[in-house]
Amino acid sequence: MARRLFAGPAFALVWALCLYVLCVETYYYIFSPDYQGFYVGLYFLYNAVLFSGLYCVARRRGLGWLPVGLLGSTILAWTGLVLFDLGLFGTQSPRRATAWFNNPNQLGYYATCLLSLVYLVYRESRLSMLAVLPWLAAAFILACFSLSKAAIVASLACLPLMLKPYGTRAGKLHWAFAVAVAAAVLGSLYYAGLFDDYAVVERITGMAREDDSSLSARGYLAYRSASAWQLIFGQGYWSVIGRLGNEVHSTLAGLFINYGLLALLLFGALVVHWLRLTREAYGLAGMISIAGPALLYGLTHNGIRFSLFWVLLSVSFAAAENRLAAGGYARRPAPAGSSALRDAPRASGPSHAGAGLP
């Protein structure tokens, strides 16, 4: 069993990517006298170890432990928000919230990953949507308080699909009608000016007027200064920062510019495998709900080192593989007394693996 776990394509791609990044960072640290350190490569190594441990636990024991950890982290994030960003111990002036994180973007990325993880818990458990809805709302509100444009847009783009019911045609029609009505009402209120004083609305509507939204400002064009060798193997994280003044604000562009075409191909293969597995296990809406928020966020921010992203990768890979090993995307009857907003049922994992929640 252990040998099969460590031989999977997800495991191989994660370790190949992280060890390659460590090698690039070590090379520049040794041969570039002004290079500030190779500890960025150690972040990747740590996340590979984290991915491997959680993946193996989730494959063997299912996700019964995950809701407890997520609930604890949600409570902790909201505690920091209340203490430091809502005026109890923090400044009274309006600002972007950070809670316990180093900066607002980290809080926003945490919120987007939390949305996907809560949705995964929902799909792998017998919880109704009515039970999960406050949790999804709590994650989205954290993104709003962070005022992270990437986090808010990614969350808004995927939340309607997270609320999509399964099992009955009538339920899907009710969902489509509810989404259309909500969009019409919110649009009417916006054009009536009722949201004009909200910082989150100003933040989103002002994106087109801001200088930091261009490809150049995000660092996408930093590849122009690279040699042919560097286009393949990368320029090194600190070399790019020394030239730009900040890191590349994109996961894909950051991997390509910092670590070259090889890193981009490895990560691209990992993402394609992730999308394929989640599509087979949870359907198109499930795939978008699980992978969409983090990938959309990564278009304008570099979230590759954020550990919760690797937690999301590991447990979603494991849950999807357990479901497919047990027979694929199967539907089961909803438990008695559950809400009509019932998601597609999970398939039980292998009997020896104990997959899924009790």
Brief overview:
By secondary structure, the protein is mostly helical. It has 13 helices and no strands. The protein has helices spanning 2-6, 9-31, 39-61, 66-84, 104-123, 129-146, 149-162, 169-191, 199-205, 228-233, 237-244, 251-297, 307-325.
List keywords for this structure.
358 residues; mainly alpha; 13 helices; 65% helix; 0% strand
The number of helices is 13
Question: What's the rounded overall pLDDT mean?
Answer: 83
**Class by helix and strand content?**
mainly alpha
Number of strands: 0
Outline type: globular
Q: What share of residues is helical?
A: 55-70%
Strand fraction equals under 5%
Largest beta-sheet characterization: none
In total, how many domains does the architecture comprise?
A: 1
What is the chain-wise order of helices and strands? HHHHHHHHHHHHH
Oligomeric form of this entry?
single chain
Q: Radius of gyration in whole Å, from Cα?
A: 21 Å
Ends apart, CA distance between termini:
22 Å
Low-confidence stretches: 88-93, 330-358
